[in-house]
Amino acid sequence: MSTMKLGKVSGVMRSFGDRVNGLSKTTKIIATVLIAFFFYILPLLEPPLISTPGSDFGAVMFTVATYALVALGLNIVVGYAGLLDLGYVGFYAVGAYTVGVLTTYHAHWPFLLVVPVAVVAAMISGVILGAPTLRVRGDYLAIVTLGFGEIVRLIANNTAWLGEAGGINQIGKPPNVEMFEVPHLNWDSGTPLLDLNDKTTVVQFGISDQIPYYWLALTIVIIVLFADRLIKDSRVGRAWEATREDEDAAELMGVPTFRYKLLAFAMGAFIGGLSGALYATKTSFINPESFVLILSILFVAAVVVGGQGNRWGVIVGAALVAYLPERFRGFEEWRILVFGVALMILATYRPEGLLPPRRTVRARQLEAEIDALEEGLDEGSPA
Amino acid sequence: MTESILEVTDLTLKFGGLTALDSVTFEIRKGEILGLIGPNGAGKTTCFNAITGVYPPTSGKILFQGQSLAGRKKFQITKLGIARTFQSIRLFKTMTALENVLVGTDAHAKSGLLNSLFRTPTQRHEETAAHERALELLRFMGLQRKANDLAGGLSYGDQRRLEIARAMATNPTLLCLDEPAAGFNPAEKKKLMELIRRVRDQGYTVLLIEHDMKLVMGVTDRIVVLEFGRKIAEGKPEEIRDNPAVIAAYLGVDEEDAS
Fold first, then answer.
1. Contact predicate A146/A86, CB 8 Å
2. To the nearest 10°, the Cα dihedral for A128, A131, A134, A136?
3. Which residues of A touch B (CB under 8 A)?
4. A225 chain-B contacts, CB cut-off 8 A
5. pLDDT recorded at residue A20
6. Domains of chain A by range and CATH?
7. pTM across the whole model
């Protein structure tokens, strides 16, 4: 039964994808710009039901954007290259701590200068972790990376220079470019009204108003999406996929698999570090408690729930993982339980995620067709 | 006498106490189809694995066009010009047929991450050339209509042919086929042998492992026979056919006088 349902759902998805591909280039560009614009103004609209009652909607949207960024990075490692990384929070922490250290009492570098340093530091940590460990496979890699995440946190916790358990305060902000103010919408009366008492300055990175940080994060997500597409749709992407499918065969077809796995790790770390840098500057305060193991698990959950291997899928997964707990803050005590149950249901009925890559869907349909043929229950599907 | 492109000298491979290959010596000459035959467990695939770098030899030498293959990584050996297929099909199942072949053509590509990210002229040029070559190979194998099908969804025969196309895409000098006709019916086998001959006519040298004696006799130029890891015979098909040791290996004799 479940496979039949799944077949129907993915059939709809496929036709949706075909329809999108059938549009003219101009239409596609206009649609993309409109959708992007909608996401930019979403925290200003504060639509009822979607907006979060318990916490600042702008801040929640920022969290969603950073999770999306993390998911895109982890998707390269887990989804494309097929390497299970359970210590991804380590790269996130390296990015955040680099920004923390270099914009506070050790050095007062400007934020924009620190960000490249932070991502390079994260990348180097990725290579340092990957070079010895990518020789092991599967379960072992998962265990080693799990350890890495903890090691980074423990180092931060025990190094005076990194603030020990107290963490780092007053982390630098991105530069402000104040141009104009935009009012938010207010839905209190049931209809949307411009609320002139609640304005966001474009672009001022303050403390109370988180929306500019969201814009910054969203911009980076969009850039990373483009880059991800260019890389995936090339020799590099093919090498990753081949390595994931059959490492030995890939190597024998001329793919230097170790180098490509290391590259996937470095790219993942790059994006993870970027996300950590954004997090550090937004909260302006970090401590080891911000980088606990459960975050790594949540990141992997975002990728798996969304559909590993599909960049849109993992963004959906990240949005759910980051947004739902905030939306339902009222049920705080229950949310981990609900989350766990949701994961179990998903694992049973949609093991490849909410929005798996098209080819995974195709592969699954094929399998179902073959099963049906073998059982002699095939109802005239094309052979 | 034509030049030899691969020289295997005293190749020995031991797994613990088991000797899989026992000082095997043979050569492959440019432009020929060399058959490697023998009963199950004779060491044919092990020999392949040693040549393509999967197992490092315990002792002995493998020279490819004068260069020693010792200590080289698998992908480096592929780049030097040796490509192979697998006895049990090992395609990249969730990739399309075209992408499978493209992975092969990528073996010699120069553009890496940055070229791909910025779509430099080098990258675009390579990509176009790779696509053309891949489609040409698919056409050669009769798979052009299935270019965008997932490899895992192809029929058994198509998968076998796709493996050959993928190996050819790495632009090898020596193409090693490990039982490409396994699981085929006689008519399909005949067609495949025809295809292998056409592959050779394109300038590739072919090393062929095959079980079916009749088939091997029909397509190969020379044959090397292995039994229990040792070479028991070498020569033209008609010589092999009448060789008592080979007949004994295949049919079995009471006394162990085969070697």
1. yes
2. -110
3. 227, 230-231, 234-239, 241-242, 245-246, 248-257, 263, 267, 359-360, 362-363, 366
4. none
5. 73
6. 57-176+208-338 (1.10.3470)
7. 0.88
